[in-house]
Amino acid sequence: MTSLDTQRRKDAQPPKPVRSPGDRTFAGLSTGAGILILLVLAGVAAFLVSESLDAISAPAEDIAGGEGVWAYVGPLVFGTLVAAVIALVVATPLGVAIALFITYYAPKRVAATLGYLIDLLAAIPSVVYGFWGLAALAPAMVPFYAWAEDNLSFIPFFAGPASATGRTMLTAGLVLAIMILPIISAISREVFSQAPALHREAALALGATRWEMIKMAVLPYGKSGVIGGSMLGLGRALGETLAVAIVLSVSGGVTFNLISSSNPSTIAANIALQFPESSGLGVSTLIFTGLVLFVITLAVNMLARYVVNRRADFSGAN
Fold first, then answer.
1. Locate the ABC transmembrane type-1 domain: which residues (predicted)?
2. Where are the alpha helices (DSSP H) in the chain?
């Protein structure tokens, strides 16, 4: 290869882009922020692990309940998962239905107002939800619990005896469902609005009704987004503290009965209620339950991110 050919090849290569000082500064700040988040996350994990070692290595009889730290945290994990699953089962179909109505059915002015009101639910403090659940929702659920005990007691979830106050696991789950509804609805609304226009128009051109178009073109496209939003809402429900602590009447134990006064607590609510009066090994035990909740929440959010990223390479028509 001659020197002339080498020079021509160099001339044919596009010039490297010159990054301005502002670009370099922004890239450095962004990278530093990402690294800082990872360091904070690692620091929180290290703190929880180090402070939990005393509870992990302590004799079983020294832990509250006298059966060891794992027996102590087991009912709390069960209660946390039950309350979060109830919230997810109620909020997901409702959030998807609201998102579809706002995106494809409601007039523009109504859609804008309704979307704003749904998003505004996320700004309400959890303590307000808790007092609303205690003062309004729980008493309103008492007649239903009595009816469920009389007519549905063959189902373990409604075995009874029905709570006279309404402060049950089902009530707590319904409060959590309202709290995570804005998350699921907002993400679903965003995904549904990005469904390829040519796919929607093609379905309508072939004679599909609006619902058939949604079923064939919108829902398949937004399925993973709905799943990701639901799991992000699940992460919020898993860590909710004050609302559950105010609404739920706790008696301990593991039970699938959702309408009685015998309810397991959740990890976050138990920490909030027990921490002020704890000391020494009791604090270490509570921190260990916090570590378990940290691992559960991290796993849920990582799974949600994985589901969302699977759709990142979707190449639909615009």
1. 77-304
2. 3-12, 21-57, 69-100, 108-120, 126-132, 138-151, 169-193, 197-205, 210-213, 219-239, 242-247, 267-274, 281-309
